Protein backbone atom coordinates (compact mmCIF):
# COMPACT_ATOMS: atom_id res chain seq x y z
CA UNK A 1 0.00 0.00 0.00
CA UNK A 2 1.31 3.44 -0.94
CA UNK A 3 0.42 6.22 1.50
CA UNK A 4 1.62 9.54 2.85
CA UNK A 5 4.45 9.15 5.34
CA UNK A 6 3.96 10.09 8.98
CA UNK A 7 6.41 10.87 11.77
CA UNK A 8 5.94 7.30 13.01
CA UNK A 9 7.54 6.08 9.76
CA UNK A 10 10.76 8.02 10.33
CA UNK A 11 12.76 5.23 12.03
CA UNK A 12 12.14 2.93 9.05
CA UNK A 13 12.73 5.73 6.53
CA UNK A 14 16.01 6.41 8.33
CA UNK A 15 17.06 2.75 8.07
CA UNK A 16 16.34 2.68 4.34
CA UNK A 17 18.11 5.98 3.69
CA UNK A 18 21.14 4.88 5.69
CA UNK A 19 21.24 1.66 3.65
CA UNK A 20 21.51 3.83 0.54
CA UNK A 21 24.35 5.77 2.13
CA UNK A 22 26.19 2.62 3.22
CA UNK A 23 25.79 0.82 -0.12
CA UNK A 24 27.25 3.79 -2.03
CA UNK A 25 24.90 3.42 -4.99
CA UNK A 26 21.96 5.74 -4.30
CA UNK A 27 23.38 8.98 -2.90
CA UNK A 28 26.55 10.98 -2.51
CA UNK A 29 25.89 11.31 1.21
CA UNK A 30 28.64 9.63 3.20
CA UNK A 31 27.55 9.99 6.81
CA UNK A 32 24.55 8.05 8.16
CA UNK A 33 21.67 10.23 9.31
CA UNK A 34 20.48 10.30 12.90
CA UNK A 35 16.82 10.11 13.78
CA UNK A 36 17.01 13.76 14.88
CA UNK A 37 18.33 14.77 11.44
CA UNK A 38 15.56 12.80 9.75
CA UNK A 39 12.95 14.37 12.02
CA UNK A 40 14.23 17.86 11.23
CA UNK A 41 14.18 17.07 7.48
CA UNK A 42 10.64 15.67 7.68
CA UNK A 43 9.13 18.42 9.85
CA UNK A 44 10.61 21.27 7.80
CA UNK A 45 8.97 20.12 4.56
CA UNK A 46 6.24 22.04 2.78
CA UNK A 47 2.99 20.14 2.03
CA UNK A 48 3.77 20.87 -1.63
CA UNK A 49 6.57 18.29 -1.40
CA UNK A 50 5.14 15.04 -0.02
CA UNK A 51 6.99 12.04 1.34
CA UNK A 52 5.25 8.76 0.55
CA UNK A 53 5.91 5.21 1.69
CA UNK A 54 5.28 1.70 0.44
CA UNK A 55 4.23 -0.10 3.59
CA UNK A 56 2.40 -3.16 4.81
CA UNK A 57 3.55 -4.13 8.30
CA UNK A 58 6.63 -1.96 7.89
CA UNK A 59 7.98 0.61 5.46
CA UNK A 60 9.60 -1.14 2.50
CA UNK A 61 10.43 1.97 0.50
CA UNK A 62 9.89 5.68 0.38
CA UNK A 63 9.94 8.52 -2.11
CA UNK A 64 9.68 12.28 -1.98
CA UNK A 65 9.21 15.36 -4.09
CA UNK A 66 11.76 18.02 -3.26
CA UNK A 67 12.29 21.66 -4.22
CA UNK A 68 14.35 22.00 -7.38
CA UNK A 69 15.26 25.67 -7.05
CA UNK A 70 14.34 28.75 -5.03
CA UNK A 71 13.83 30.76 -8.25
CA UNK A 72 10.21 31.48 -9.17
CA UNK A 73 10.87 30.53 -12.81
CA UNK A 74 11.42 26.96 -11.60
CA UNK A 75 8.36 26.76 -9.34
CA UNK A 76 6.79 24.13 -11.60
CA UNK A 77 9.74 21.74 -11.31
CA UNK A 78 10.22 19.17 -8.57
CA UNK A 79 13.22 17.01 -7.84
CA UNK A 80 12.50 13.47 -6.74
CA UNK A 81 14.10 10.90 -4.49
CA UNK A 82 13.30 7.21 -4.14
CA UNK A 83 14.77 4.56 -1.84
CA UNK A 84 13.83 0.89 -1.45
CA UNK A 85 14.81 -1.35 1.46
CA UNK A 86 17.44 -3.83 0.26
CA UNK A 87 15.20 -6.79 1.17
CA UNK A 88 12.31 -5.42 -0.90
CA UNK A 89 14.07 -4.58 -4.16
CA UNK A 90 12.93 -6.19 -7.39
CA UNK A 91 9.30 -6.49 -6.31
CA UNK A 92 7.84 -3.53 -8.19
CA UNK A 93 7.78 -1.15 -5.22
CA UNK A 94 9.87 1.42 -7.07
CA UNK A 95 7.34 1.40 -9.89
CA UNK A 96 4.42 1.81 -7.48
CA UNK A 97 6.13 4.66 -5.65
CA UNK A 98 7.02 6.39 -8.93
CA UNK A 99 3.45 6.05 -10.17
CA UNK A 100 2.04 7.63 -7.01
CA UNK A 101 4.70 10.33 -6.85
CA UNK A 102 4.03 11.37 -10.45
CA UNK A 103 0.28 11.45 -9.76
CA UNK A 104 0.82 13.70 -6.74
CA UNK A 105 3.22 15.92 -8.68
CA UNK A 106 0.57 16.44 -11.37
CA UNK A 107 -2.08 17.16 -8.72
CA UNK A 108 0.25 19.78 -7.19
CA UNK A 109 0.63 21.43 -10.61
CA UNK A 110 4.25 20.53 -11.28
CA UNK A 111 5.00 20.32 -14.99
CA UNK A 112 8.39 18.60 -14.80
CA UNK A 113 10.20 16.11 -12.61
CA UNK A 114 13.98 16.04 -12.47
CA UNK A 115 16.50 13.84 -10.74
CA UNK A 116 20.18 13.13 -10.49
CA UNK A 117 21.39 9.55 -10.26
CA UNK A 118 24.84 8.05 -9.96
CA UNK A 119 25.99 7.01 -13.42
CA UNK A 120 26.65 3.46 -12.21
CA UNK A 121 23.21 2.99 -10.59
CA UNK A 122 21.77 0.96 -13.46
CA UNK A 123 18.74 -0.48 -11.59
CA UNK A 124 17.51 3.05 -10.80
CA UNK A 125 18.16 4.24 -14.35
CA UNK A 126 16.15 1.31 -15.70
CA UNK A 127 13.19 2.32 -13.53
CA UNK A 128 13.41 5.95 -14.61
CA UNK A 129 13.66 5.09 -18.31
CA UNK A 130 10.72 2.71 -17.93
CA UNK A 131 8.78 5.65 -16.53
CA UNK A 132 9.62 7.90 -19.48
CA UNK A 133 12.49 9.90 -18.01
CA UNK A 134 15.11 11.09 -20.49
CA UNK A 135 18.80 11.46 -19.79
CA UNK A 136 19.61 15.12 -20.43
CA UNK A 137 23.17 15.35 -19.21
CA UNK A 138 26.19 13.78 -17.66
CA UNK A 139 27.98 15.66 -14.93
CA UNK A 140 31.50 14.29 -15.03
CA UNK A 141 33.43 13.92 -11.79
CA UNK A 142 30.50 15.63 -10.08
CA UNK A 143 30.78 14.20 -6.61
CA UNK A 144 33.34 12.74 -4.29
CA UNK A 145 32.44 9.27 -3.02
CA UNK A 146 34.92 7.30 -0.94
CA UNK A 147 37.79 9.41 -2.23
CA UNK A 148 36.87 8.95 -5.90
CA UNK A 149 35.11 11.39 -8.19
CA UNK A 150 31.97 9.87 -9.72
CA UNK A 151 29.75 10.87 -12.61
CA UNK A 152 26.10 11.82 -12.15
CA UNK A 153 23.33 11.53 -14.75
CA UNK A 154 20.72 14.27 -14.98
CA UNK A 155 17.27 13.03 -15.99
CA UNK A 156 13.90 14.70 -16.52
CA UNK A 157 10.32 14.04 -17.48
CA UNK A 158 7.75 16.61 -18.56
CA UNK A 159 4.48 15.54 -16.94
CA UNK A 160 2.17 18.46 -17.79
CA UNK A 161 2.42 20.49 -20.97
CA UNK A 162 -0.22 23.12 -20.20
CA UNK A 163 1.02 26.21 -18.45
CA UNK A 164 -0.43 27.60 -15.26
TrEMBL record:
Which ranges does the record mark as transmembrane? none
User: Do you know which CDD domains this protein is assigned to?
Assistant: NAT_SF
Domain N-acetyltransferase: start-end pairs: 1-156
Query: What InterPro entries does its record include?
Result: Acyl_CoA_acyltransferase, GNAT_dom
The answer to keyword Transmembrane applying to this record is: no
Q: Which GO MF terms are attached to this record?
A: acyltransferase activity, transferring groups other than amino-acyl groups
What are the alphabetically sorted keywords of the record?
A: Acyltransferase, Transferase
| PANTHER family per record | N-ACETYLTRANSFERASE, UPF0039 PROTEIN C11D3.02C
NCBIfam families found in the cross-reference section: resist_ArsN1a
Q: What is this protein called?
A: Phosphinothricin acetyltransferase
Species of origin: Marininema mesophilum
